[in-house]
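Input record (one chain):
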Amino acid sequence: MEHNQPGPITAPGERTAPGRPGDRVELIQAEWRRERPDLDVSPQAVIGRLHRLADRLSAELALVYRHYGLGEGEFDVLAALRRAGAPYERAPGELAAHTMVTTGAMTKRVDRLERAGLVTRRTAEGDRRARVVALTGAGLRLIDEAFTAHMRNEHRLLALLEPAEAAALQSLLAAWQHRLDGAGPADGPAPAD
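The corresponding structure, as predicted from the sequence alone:
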């Protein structure tokens, strides 16, 4: 199966490694091997590529968000509300947890969405002290349309891999994340050998 591969990922004026157009990671590794032959820089082949891939994927995903007048943060808030199911509302703290941002950052996002008429804030039923954020009709229509386009875009990006490659990658990433999460937070740099 032939894939439409994206062009090389290089910045203007960036040199590339011989034999692989745009493989900046190989060039960086070669430079470090020359300058620090005492260090094993092989992890960069994975970690460096994941960083570059994450940046590229974020840029590709942002194209859809911008098309709908949203930033990534606003999209995340609307999606978290939509996933909650009818009546499409959550408490601000719950929203912050679902989108992994601070409550201060959440307040700014909700403020922007409220000004745009996509969400409302109101008092929670049964607890006058609690507040909830809810999708408006316009917010529900927008996130349904934007999420449909977002899924089309993710399918397009994943179609660059064979189905077996995508399944293997999903499995590897899930296993790595599980093990890393189980290891707990890092306290500092790894000890010297």
